Structure formats: structure tokens, C-alpha cells
Amino acid sequence: MTHLSDPFNRPINYLRISVTDRCNLRCIYCMPPEGVELLSHGEILSYEEIARIAALAADLGINKIRITGGEPLVRARLKELVALLAGLKGIDDISLTTNGILLKDYAAELKQAGLKRVNVSLDSLNRDRFERITRHNKLVDVLQGIETAKGCGLNPVKVNMVVMRGINDDEVIDFARLTISQGWHVRFIELMPFVTDNPPDGHSVAGKVNIHPGFVSADEVKERLQGLGGLEPSLPITGNGPARYYRFSNAGGTVGFIAPVSQHFCFSCNRLRLTAEGKLRPCLLDDGEVDLRQPLRRGASDVELKKVITEAIHTKPHKHRLIDGRTSKKRLMSQVGG
Ligand code: SAM
Question: Is the CB of 191 under 6 A from ligand 1?
């Protein structure tokens, strides 16, 4: 296999592909209630275009792909893309990040098409609160989606919770308990500041980036979990991602902590992102992007496209600049592919 690395000698083997900027939720920290201006059908890469880029990336050394969005399950016939990606030489892991609402309908066909595992975003186990955070009353669908995904053999199913002070931070113990009672794999994620976001307290932060008022550090969450018993370090359940994993002694599942703000993991970042309209983005929190759609649609050769991909990797920043108050100004998480 070819090995791809950036100028800081970080191996790059992971491509996150956003298949849409549309979402069937409006999470308070991610999107305004009215949504955001959406891409037109013609602006979005077709599955064949995505698969061609993925094939070239695989040739260069990418072996892991995650499908994300927006909400990836709102795009029609996603299983066709999964099947195309699963057929690519060199790709040995295909995963999905979803809010889980439609998972009960699609988990089986996605698994059959070649999907290996799934991450479900879930910020509250309380129905009213789930609705306040996401602006939709869909908690039951998400919980059914998680069970269906497990039942179909998608493994592991990881549940990702963004912890927000005064909004859902009092539920961290309830989530952690599910690693014992249900064998869930739960990961607590620090809230990242996006300039254009609507902070949960409702005040605009336009033009100014700060640690979010709702921010809770991963260390604080870990400390709060000690009440449930001793947490022992655990090996990662899959992959080699940024989470630090632990386990309660009597638990079948794990708790993980992802701390992009308080303990950035840029030194080990192996990711490249492809937005729904075909921009390669080497860093989630930096607006540097390289366009692939235009050369793709004017008939560029494989060699030319590979050059664009390699050049994008060469612009990957050493680390994100949240510490200096800099974050993504152009896009929300839903428009990058979280
Ligand atoms: N719709 C899919 C989902 O809900 O998983 C995929 C896209 S969503 C943008 C991906 C993840 O980004 C979700 O887990 C969401 O909670 C997370 N996210 C969005 N904005 C965030 C922020 N400001 N800080 C931390 N995580 C964020």
C-alpha cells in the first residue's frame, strides 16, 4: 500500500466524505432554526464523482472512509454509494456518522452494501430536552435506530454526546450508566466554537470566537463520572481515532473522551475531508480548501486529480488555532461534514 503523509510527517489515511449539507434536525449549536442556505442538486457531487475521488485517494494511501453530512441518511439511495466505496481496492473500513433518526429504515441495507460501523450523535436521553436541543421530537426514532444498527451487526455502534453546560451536562452519568446496563460505547465530545453558530444561550457570537459559554472540558466530565466507580483505561474499540477510552470494571461498553478544544489531537490527525460540493478540506477548523469538482467536471485525468489531492494535503495546518481565537468562518459543521 502507498503511504501518504503531510509536511509534518503525519500519515494521512482517513477520508471523511460529506454527502449532503441537508439535515433533518436543527441542533441549537449547529444550525439556526430556519436552516442555512443549501447547495443545489447540481452543486453536489454525484455518487460516481465521489467514488472516483475516493478511488484516487485510495490509490494514494487512504484506507478508511467515513460518510457524514449534513445528515447522510437524508440523501437518497445511500447504499449505492456504500457499495461503490466498498468495491474500491485499498478501502478496508467504511463507517457512517448519523443522527440516527432514519437508521432503523436503512441499517440493514447499508450493512449489506458494505458499511462496517456507525456513530450515532445523541445529546439527551430525555424526550423534551432532546426536542429542545434538536428542535425535533425524534428521540424514540434515534433509540430504535441504535438498536436496529446493533441487531444488523454494525459493530461497534458508538454514541456521541456533545456536552453543554446547563443544557445536558447533568446527563453524563446517565449516558455512562448505559455502558454498564446496555454495553453502549459512549463518547463525550467537547463543544467546539464555530463563528457562525448559535450558542445555546441564544446570544450571537458573530465575529468573535471564544470558548463557548456551554463548554465543558473532557477532564471535568471524566471527574464527574468517578461517582459511578473506578474508570480503567481501555484500548480503543476500533481504529486509532482521537478518543481516549476507559471502562467501568463491570461494563460491557466503554466511555471515550474527545477533547478537540482542551487537549487538541492535531499532532496525530490523519484526516482529510471532502465537502458535499467537492472541496477538499485538510482541517475541520481551518478554512483552507482545494476544489476538486471543477477539474473533475472539466475532464481532468487521474494524474491531475491526484496532484490536486496531494497538494491539498500539503496545505494541512500544523494545528488548529482555537487557542488564538481562530476557527472556521466560512462553514458550519453541517457544511463541512462533522
Ligand atoms: N448529521 C450527522 C450527525 O448528527 O451525526 C452528521 C453530521 S453532524 C454535523 C456530526 C457531529 O458534529 C454531530 O455529532 C454533532 O453533534 C457534531 N457537532 C456539530 N457542531 C458541533 C460543535 N460546535 N461542537 C462539537 N460537535 C459538534
Answer: yes
For a ligand 1 pocket test, name from 21, 30, 160 the mutation site with the most ligand atoms within 8 angstroms of its C-beta: 30
Residue nearest to atom 2 of ligand 1 (CA): 98
Q: Is 295 exposed, middle or buried (0-12, 13-18, 19+ CB in 10 A)?
A: middle
Q: Are 242 and 268 in contact (CB under 8 A)?
A: yes
User: Whole-model pTM?
Assistant: 0.93
* Ligand 1 atom having least distance to the Cα of 71: 1
- Range from 128-132, 157-161, 175-179, 314-318 carrying the lowest mean pLDDT: 314-318
pLDDT digits (tens, 9 = 90+) for 94-104: 999 999 999 99
pLDDT score, position 34: 84
Mean pLDDT over the full length of the chain: 90
Q: Grid coordinates representing 159?
A: 454514541
Lowest mean pLDDT among 113-127, 187-201, 277-291: 187-201
Per the CB < 8 A criterion, the answer to whether 82 and 118 are in contact is no
Strand order from edge to edge, sheet including 290-291: 231-233, 244-248, 255-258, 185-190, 157-163, 117-121, 93-98, 64-68, 14-18, 271-274, 279-281, 290-291
Q: 166-180, 194-208, 235-249, 272-286: lowest mean pLDDT where?
A: 194-208
- Whether residue 84 contacts residue 49, with contact meaning beta carbons closer than 8 Å, is answered with no
Nearest residue (by CA) to ligand 1, atom 17, is: 338
